[in-house]
Write a structure and sequence with these properties.
- The chain is of the alpha/beta class.
- It has 2 domains: 157 residues, no CATH class; 132 residues, no CATH class.
- Helix content is 29%, strand content 23%.
- The chain has 9 helices and 11 strands.
- The chain has a 5-stranded antiparallel beta sheet, with no helix packed on it. A 4-stranded parallel beta sheet has the order 1-2-3-10. Strands 6-7 form a two-stranded antiparallel ribbon.
- Helix 3 links the parallel strand 1 and strand 2.
- Helix 3 packs parallel to helix 5.
- The relative contact order is 0.19.
Length: 340
């Protein structure tokens, strides 16, 4: 096996160092190799003096930098109006003046800073994430039938309902209000996606034994089995009132109705003015709107620091699963995923 010359040269430099030098580098590594922390801010309710002090504390504790995350988690949900105004002073010139103060101190100490690409999780919030750019979910209902028979009637439709994600956001202190007319615009996004039948057995579901880490419809006692090749798309056979006429072939069949709903999710811990709707992560327009709100404002106000020791971080925050047993969806999933 041939080893590239560049690798051999690098290895020779490493092994050429005295063992004592290597030992010293491990015992007292440069700041570039230090671990980082997540630096949680109470929204924008901070002072330059305190930020500078905490940066020095990070340095003294042996950290190399931090990731700024301003949110409302852990704060008093009944905070006075003046305090809430300071907490929600996020992505404003005043907020970024605080960020610059922290960056100045970090540079003086030889540290680095990032900030998350949004407040809280998952991303969204502000007037930029409108009902048309907010997250969607796909729900389903099903009915078991046995053929041969003639099925005439309305297949059961899934219903919209708030889930665990909305409850967690409320517990984090995020209000659930919407501007006038937004609720109606959200509801207009509901639509039937498909009605599909499969030959196969129905799953047996019992009462939930766990309240949070379980299927919201119950615990599966026996898995149902479907024959993939037997799929019959019945969407086009629905009448105007949603009724279905179908001659069911012999055997056990499961009729599934899939419907799209606005997910009605709020950003958990989100700080800032405006509603806190979670963005549609697979919608390019939603992504660009969020980028302009969070990224361009940072670029404008942070100046020469942007991209040189400071930048938005999204390594662990691109989450879009918020409801146990629910599926986040997008009507342009494939094109959106490619374009992002």
């Amino acid at each position: 096996m041939r080893i590239p010359f560049a690798i051999l040269a690098s290895l020779s430099l490493v092994f050429a160092q005295p063992a004592q030098n290597i030992r010293q580098e491990f015992q007292n590594p440069s700041k570039a190799y230090r671990p980082m922390v997540r630096w949680w801010w109470p929204g924008g309710d901070v002072t330059d003096a305190e930020l500078r002090r905490e940066v020095r504390q990070l340095d003294e504790a042996g950290f190399g930098g931090g990731e700024i995350q301003p949110f409302v988690i852990g704060l008093n949900p009944k905070m006075p109006a003046d305090v809430r105004a300071r907490v929600n002073d996020y992505l404003t010139p005043a907020f970024f003046r605080h960020v610059r103060a922290a960056l100045d101190e970090a540079r003086a100490q030889g540290l680095w800073l990032d900030y998350t690409f949004g407040s809280g999780w998952p991303f969204g919030g502000g007037m930029e994430i409108t009902p048309e750019l907010a997250s969607l979910e796909l729900r389903y209902s099903h009915q078991a039938v046995h053929g041969p028979m003639h099925f005439r009637g309305k297949p059961p439709e899934p219903k919209a309902a708030s889930g665990l994600g909305a409850a967690v956001a409320a517990l984090s202190g995020v209000p659930d209000y919407l501007p006038e007319g937004w609720q109606e615009r959200m509801e207009k996004r509901s639509r039937l996606v498909a009605v599909v039948a499969y030959r196969g057995s129905e799953a047996q579901v019992g009462p939930r034994q766990q309240q949070f880490l379980a299927n919201p419809d119950g615990d599966v006692k026996r898995t149902g089995m479907l024959e993939e090749s037997s799929a019959v798309v019945l969407t086009g056979r629905l009448t105007a009132d949603g009724s279905l006429d179908w001659d069911v072939p012999e055997g056990d069949w499961q009729i599934f109705t899939f419907k799209q709903f606005p997910a009605d999710l709020r950003v958990v811990g989100g700080a800032g003015a405006g509603p806190q709707l979670v963005m549609d992560h697979m919608n390019r327009d939603a992504f660009l709107a969020h980028t302009r709100r969070v990224g361009e404002s940072a670029r404008e106000h942070v100046g020469n620091y942007f991209g040189t020791g400071f930048g938005p971080s999204s390594a662990t925050a691109w989450r879009c699963t918020d409801r146990i047993g629910r599926t986040i969806c997008s009507p342009n999933f494939r094109s959106g995923a490619v374009m992002i």
